[in-house]
Amino acid sequence: MSNLIPLCAECHDEMPNVSDPLEVWRWIKADHGTMHDTYWTLRAQRDAGLSDEQFKNLDASKLPSLFEKHCSQQFGQLHGRAGLSVATLAWIMRQASP
After folding, report:
1. Residue 96 — φ and ψ, nearest 5°?
2. What domain range is 92 assigned to?
3. Which end of the chain has fewer CB atoms surrounding its CB within 10 Å, N or C?
4. Whole-structure pTM value
């Protein structure tokens, strides 16, 4: 029981595979938000090269068109669920950046 930490599939794949439980908790606290998928959004923001201010000012009116015309969800990846990759999210953020 002391080895059970509930993580989403993506975080489980990214976590440090070490025997030091303190390192795992350090990684969780340092690199992850408090809600599901927060880490992946923040990682996409970083990969897009956007500051917090730029991220806050994304043009939300562009998002539906970007999704519809330029993006697809990958089936069979992301542990069998449909979703957008971090690289796709980063691209969307760059396109919607003022």
Report:
1. -95, 0
2. 9-96
3. N
4. 0.55
